[in-house]
Amino acid sequence: MRVGFIGECMAELKQVDGLLQEGFAGDTFNSAVYLKRTFPALESYFISAIGSDPLSKEMLEFTRGESINTRFLYAHPDKHIGLYKIYTDACGERSFTYWRNDSAAKGLMSLLNESDAASLTAMDMVLFSGISLAVLNREDLNKFWRLLGKLKDSGTQIGFDMNHRPALWKGRNDAKALYEKAFEVADIALPGLEDFNFLYGFESVEEIVSFLAPFSFKLLVIKNGSRAVTLVDAEGEVSEVGFTPVKNVVDTTSAGDAFNGVFLGAYLSGEKPESCVKKAAQCAGFVIQHPGAIVDKASYSDLVSSFSPSLA
Ligand code: ADP
């Protein structure tokens, strides 16, 4: 099984014990990592663009170190990868400053030729997000929608999570118009209540379920932080899957990304949606008890090997 993750990975800088530490992260990239770490038998592809500079090459090495396939990770001759720095104030509150407005990932669609676009139809699933949409050059969006349409026609399932980042959009309406287009193409939608609250003012999962009822998903998966995940199947049947909330939360960055990667991996491995949610929630719950978007590999692999046969 092949799963493609479309988006942007950036270099991450943060102070740790007075030293500047470098890492790499980005929403769909994080999902690609967690899918591969949890389901090594699946092939995880990161579909994006980087530069040809040393920092981009480090990112490429990091990606390969996670056993992610880089066949569709293009190297732009002049552009660079985006960068962000995490600042933590005296109260432990984190803030982020980004340098990504001219990143290589924006130009993905002009680097992806017809023959590679045809090869992408071999994917069983591709995941993209609101961040992927916001990052792509505006003039390339039609080409992007055409690509998704072609993949869908060829049988590739399309996954979508809004992952709304207000700073990347001109305004709410701009984002909402594109998200609604994305919901039209998505087979599996994995939105969070928080995004719907910010964009549409919805306060309950029920409001999201009715709003999304006109779209035809194979599966709708609604995340709601530490509260139960809601599933809606293709017939409109609604169910809730609960899990134990984590009390000692260290860093919630990438909870939803880890959830998405593990959910899709489990789904493609043939697990029932309820079991996919349980596994995804367990992994996301683990990730938020550790610092950083991509947690230490060794401890994560202990988690994966600890899965009981009843969860597998
Ligand atoms: P996002 O990162 O997209 O905002 P959420 O905050 O909804 O996503 O979290 C995604 C998933 O991470 C949840 O569905 C849940 O499985 C897990 N999660 C988040 N917060 C907690 C928590 N406090 N305890 C346990 N699991 C959590």
Automatic annotation (TrEMBL):
Entry's Gene Ontology molecular function annotations: 2-dehydro-3-deoxygluconokinase activity
Gene3D superfamilies: 3.40.1190.20
GO biological process terms held by the UniProt record: D-galacturonate catabolic process; D-glucuronate catabolic process; DNA damage response
GO cellular component: cytosol
One Pfam family here: PfkB
KW Kinase (keyword) present: yes
Keyword match Kinase: yes
Sorted UniProt keywords: Kinase, Transferase
InterPro entries named in the record: PfkB_Carbo_kinase (IPR050306), PfkB_dom (IPR011611), Ribokinase-like (IPR029056)
Residue ranges annotated for the Carbohydrate kinase PfkB domain, each copy included: 20-295
Listed PANTHER family: 2-DEHYDRO-3-DEOXYGLUCONOKINASE (PTHR43085:SF15), HEXOKINASE FAMILY MEMBER (PTHR43085)
Family stated for the protein in its record: Belongs to the carbohydrate kinase PfkB family.
Protein name from the UniProt record: Ketodeoxygluconokinase
Organism: Alteromonas mediterranea
